[in-house]
Specification:
By secondary structure, this protein is of the alpha+beta class. The chain has a domain at 23-76: N-terminal domain of TfIIb (Single Sheet). It is built from 1 helix and 4 strands; from the N terminus they run E-E-E-E-H. The chain has a 4-stranded antiparallel β-sheet, with helices on one face. The structure holds zinc ion (ZN). Zinc ion binds next to loops.
Length: 83
C-alpha cells in the first residue's frame, strides 16, 4: 500500500510575548506571568513599573488575569500592591 505523502503546510507560530496595555502609563508593556503551582498571576509593566499579584483560578489565561488586574487597579486605585 502506497502512502501518499501529503504536503503539509507548516504553521509558523510566533511566540509573541503577551503584552498588554498598562492602565497606568498606557503603554503596551504589561507582562503577565502565570504561576500555576500557586494559582497566582504576576503582572508587571516594564515601562512604568506598575506591578501586582493576583490569585487566579486554575487554567486562567494570561489575558484573563490581566483584565482581573486592571479591574482591581481601577477599583482600588492601587499602583503598588494588588493582593
Ligand atoms: Zn505602565
Amino acid at each position: 500500500m502506497g502512502r501518499r505523502r501529503k504536503k503539509e503546510e507548516k504553521i509558523i507560530r510566533k511566540t509573541l510575548p503577551e503584552l498588554f496595555l498598562c492602565p497606568n502609563c498606557a503603554k503596551n508593556s504589561i507582562k503577565v506571568t502565570i504561576d500555576p503551582k500557586n494559582n497566582l498571576a504576576g503582572i508587571r509593566c516594564s515601562a512604568c513599573g506598575l506591578h501586582g499579584r493576583i490569585t487566579i483560578e486554575p487554567n486562567t489565561a494570561p489575558v484573563d488575569a490581566y483584565s482581573m488586574f486592571v479591574d482591581k487597579y481601577y477599583e482600588e486605585g492601587v499602583t503598588q500592591k494588588v493582593a
